Amino acid sequence: MLIFDPEKKTSFKRLISHGDLVIVYERHDNMKAVKVSEGSVLQNRFGVFKHSDWIGKPFGSKVFSNKGGFVYLLAPTPELWTLVLSHRTQILYIADISFVIMYLEIVPGCIVLESGTGSGSLTTSLARAVAPTGHVYTFDFHEQRAASAREDFDKTGLSSLITVDVRDIQGQGFPDKFSGLVDAIFLDLPQPWLAIPSAGKMLKQDGILCSFSPCIEQVQCTSETLRSNFTDIRTFEVLLRTYEVRDVKMDCQGLEEVGSPGSLPCKRKQCSNGGSSVGNISSPSTVLARPSSEARGHTGYLTFARLKCLS
Known about the structure:
This protein is an alpha/beta fold. It is 20% helix and 31% strand.
């Protein structure tokens, strides 16, 4: 669980306790969030895991089942939470999230407004960025989504840093109480240009706004509206390319052995008796790095703008 320490920073307890949220890691594409409860068990293809065996162990521990299978118990960082949370809406992933936090210039102590909350993927990372003295105020027009988000923030220990409210920001704008007090604003709305006049009133002088839109037509309308009160308008598309790194065996000519995924066919040297020399010599191994075949494509466009300073 995340613990709020006003004298230091948001950090994780080192030992797992009853009631803690842990990320159970089976493999890189198979993780789940589990609340630790003494007397409960987790059952999967590796066997049965007793929660009582987890209590008192440090985060990152490798634990074994009754069959000898194992999983890792990881702390619920915002990065891992993004991968395991319930998708109530389309979410932002790590590449976009890190870019947003950097270009919004969010640091500890900042006041940030967000609309809409959605599944809370970005909200969790915003909270860590503003901790321990800042705060994130997030709004969603859907009451049930807002309630589910509050429950998630309680699970991850971030409720002291996040306030969730139900409000139609496109129709009503942001509450007047934030006027001139906000360092950064993030919009994830179907028609973000409707919320821009209100956002401009909320921001401090030189404050920054970011709007996330999946379609370029939304970007065009947003940018047109921003021109009246904002400057330094820029739009980015973040494309992440991952690589697979693994050990492979090489043949005598230094090529990847036939039969490996994606390998090229290679000639074999013929021996005097007509046989092949491959197989008589042990194959050395090397590390191969190649682009992943499951690279994530377009997610959306990020449009940033800075509020004009009064002359």
